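#dry-run=false #mode=assembly
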Amino acid sequence: MRTEIQLAGFGGQGIVLSGLILGEAAILDGLNAVQTQSYGPESRGGAARSDVIISNMGIDYPKVVSPNVLVTLSQPAYDKYHSLISEKGLLIVDADLVESEASALRVPFSKLADELGRRIVANVIMLGTLAKVSECVSRESLERAVLRNIPKGTEELNLKALAAGFGSS
Amino acid sequence: MDEREYAAIRKLLGESPAFIQGDVACAYGAVLAGCRFFAGYPITPATETSESMASLMPRVGGTYIQMEDEIASIAAVIGASWAGQKAMTTTSGPGFSLMQENIGYACMTETPCVIVDVQRSGPSTGQPTEPAQGDMMQSRWGSHGDYELIALVPHSVQECLDLVIEAFNLAERFRVPVIVLTDAEVGHMREKTVIPEFKDLHLVERERPTVPRESYVPFGGGAAAVPPMGFFGLGYRTYVTGLTHTEKGLPATSSAAEHTKLVSRLCEKIRQASDALVKVEERYLDGAEYAVVSYGVTSRVALNAVRLLRRRKKKVGYLRLIGLWPFPEARLAQLGKQVKGLLVPEMNLGQIVHPVREAVAGKCRVAQLPKIGGAIHTPAEIAEAVDKLMTGSRR
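#status=ok
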């Protein structure tokens, strides 16, 4: 089965890293994954998008056509992509940054991250929520993938963030 | 490379399967192939290869140099190769343009080297972060004069690793620059990538001269010969020049005979090996009446589209170019006789469609499906274009 996940927001929100972690978690689960990204020349503030395809079979077309899961962490990203979501698709938005349709799963990722002391872990909280709700990867693999991709010394903070994500929905 | 060196490298590269970018896989492939010299000038979307090589080279006893520009980068790579190292550089569109003169120099001096071009939109600086396939023809005809070289086009992260190893093997075997054409999509894509085991790693080393020093002829041999390379340090005396030279390497710039002999050999050593160098992937071609000919990331879309059409009972096949130069002309000519039409989707306004047309020589219709601006084709776009080709042919 092919699951298409699209993560979109501003550069600097950790969109691309989130896609990487999610894909790596899928590989650790023994699945196939392809992660692609698009971003502008700016390192902060421009639009950022990361597509992750997870499948138990080979993946030829590497892009998202109609996401089964769409996460938007900025208003422009929501405005641009929310209409593409597949039927019965799961829409997750940052409650404080995005005005969205009522059916979306609205979680204040940035606020929860602020409460943990670092806004920068909002994306890890988001990954926790995404994994819990979509069940696209196991918690164990996601934890391992997070730990493999963060700076030394931030393990505790990131694991807390992931737990907050799992607990937020 | 012995088993011990391999084990040390494997430790550096980490777990397999890895979840890495195409650019990083190119660096992994290079290290595994025995590359111990990298010179480059960072450029989006190829920077990650430089970054990886900067980290890997010093830890395997190799050298990484960030040069002042791409002209110097390829020049340093050529020098390193003549000093006996397997050497590589990486770049993208504008940098690839700058390298062209020295790529010709590498062909003329028969210098094995590998150039990875992670293509982005052009002309000029264009769209730095967006993928394109705009250098397909430049990779063949970018330098001046008559020459042949080899180019490979990976379509996945795994193939980036595998084909860079292959590129080194071919460069060493034929003493030519080998170009690996990826693009921003494949270069930045992350995918499950298996790192080959020692027993699966087949590496080719350049042939060294065995004759006594006084009888060594550095650029000799028959009409399609690849002469053994007496690189610096082996004790052989060799003069290396981009000028037309005799078998002994001495300039002979006014001799039509010497020039014809040399340049013909440079071309023939590749042309006569063309059949062995053909590398295509074929699917669904049995009984196909139409086919999509594609390469690189576009071929992944094409395969998806062909499957879609097959489900609709359309007799459509798939041919992917993995080896681009020398061009698999004979295979395409044969396919042209089998089918009624070929579709060539490309992320440029029409480049490889031309050698395809030349190969089929009017035996079937050839339609192009260009797309530029950064987005890759969608399966629906390719399927629709095939439909149109089928309807058009029936009329």
